[in-house]
C-alpha cells in the first residue's frame, strides 16, 4: 500500500495497514472453528475500541456488532454464539467475507472466494466484492473459475510458475483464448 512494504508483516500488521484477505482455505486460514461466530467476526479487531476497553473485552459491543453482520451478510446460524466450525461452507465463507469487508479495506486480496459454496452465496459474495471495488478498494482476485474472473475483473493476468505470461482487459476478453493459453501452459510442465 503506497510505499509501505508488507512482505514480512504478520496478519495483524497487514490488517491494520488496510489489507483485507479472503483466503483460499477458509477452514485453515480464515476461521477459528472452535470460536464463536461473534469472536471470528472481530478476530482482527478484538483488542481495539469498541470491542475492548483498557484491555477488557466488551462482550455486549461484540455481540451487537456480530448480530448486525449476521443479518447484513445473511449468516444462517442459531445465533452469534454458535461455533464457526459448525456452519455450512457458504456460511463460513460469509463470516470471513463479512469480517474482511466490513472494516473498509484499501486492498482486498480474495483467493478462490467462492470455492465450495452454494449458488446463492456465490452471487452474494460477488456483489460484496464488487461493492468493495466500487467503494474504492483495490481488489486482487485469484480464481481458477474463469467465469468468475470474467464477471468480476477489470483486468486479467494469466500467471504460470509465478510469472505473468499474458495480461488483458476483461472487457472483450475471449474465454476460449484464455482456456487455450492455460492448456498450452499446462503442457509446458
Provide the low-confidence segments as ranges.
none
The global form is globular
What is the number of helical segments per DSSP (H or I, 4+ residues)? Answer: 8
- Oligomer description: single chain
The amount of beta strand, in percent, is 15-25%
Strand order across the largest sheet: 1-4-5
Give the terminus-to-terminus CA distance. 34 Å
Number of strands: 7
Rg (CA only)? 18 Å
Order of helices and strands: HEHHEEHHEHEHEEH
Major pleated sheet: 3 strands, parallel
Structural class, from helix and strand content?
alpha/beta
Q: Helicity, in percent? A: 40-55%
Quote the average pLDDT: 91
Q: Which features does this protein show?
A:
two-stranded antiparallel ribbon, alpha/beta, three-stranded parallel β-sheet, 189 residues, 42% helix, 8 helices, single chain, globular
Describe this structure in words.
- This protein has 189 residues and is of the alpha/beta class.
- 42% of the residues lie in helices and 16% in strands.
- The protein contains 8 helices and 7 strands, in the order H-E-H-H-E-E-H-H-E-H-E-H-E-E-H.
- The chain has a 3-stranded parallel sheet with strand order 1-4-5. A two-stranded antiparallel sheet has the order 2-3.
- Strand 4, helix 6 and strand 5 form a beta-alpha-beta unit.
- Helix 5 packs parallel to helix 6.
- The protein is globular.
- It starts with 10 loop residues before the first helix and ends with a helix.
Amino acid at each position: 500500500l503506497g510505499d509501505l512494504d508488507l512482505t514480512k508483516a504478520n496478519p495483524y500488521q497487514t490488517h491494520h495497514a488496510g489489507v483485507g484477505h479472503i483466503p483460499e482455505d477458509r477452514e485453515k486460514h480464515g476461521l477459528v472453528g472452535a470460536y464463536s461466530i461473534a469472536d471470528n467476526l472481530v478476530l482482527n479487531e478484538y483488542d481495539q475500541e469498541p470491542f475492548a476497553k483498557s484491555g477488557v473485552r466488551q462482550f455486549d459491543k461484540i455481540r451487537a456488532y456480530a448480530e448486525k453482520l449476521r443479518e447484513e451478510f445473511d449468516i444462517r446460524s442459531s445465533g452469534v454464539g454458535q461455533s464457526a466450525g459448525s456452519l455450512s461452507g457458504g456460511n463460513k465463507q460469509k463470516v470471513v467475507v463479512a469480517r474482511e469487508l466490513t472494516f473498509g479495506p484499501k486492498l482486498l486480496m480474495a483467493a478462490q472466494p467462492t470455492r465450495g459454496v452454494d449458488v446463492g452465496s456465490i452471487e452474494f459474495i460477488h456483489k460484496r466484492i464488487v461493492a468493495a471495488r466500487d467503494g474504492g478498494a483495490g481488489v486482487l482476485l485469484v480464481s481458477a473459475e474463469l467465469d468468475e474472473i470474467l464477471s468480476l475483473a477489470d483486468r486479467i493476468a494469466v500467471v504460470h510458475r509465478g510469472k505473468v505470461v499474458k495480461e488483458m482487459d476483461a472487457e472483450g476478453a475471449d474465454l476460449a483464448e484464455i482456456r487455450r493459453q492455460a492448456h498450452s501452459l499446462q503442457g509446458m510442465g
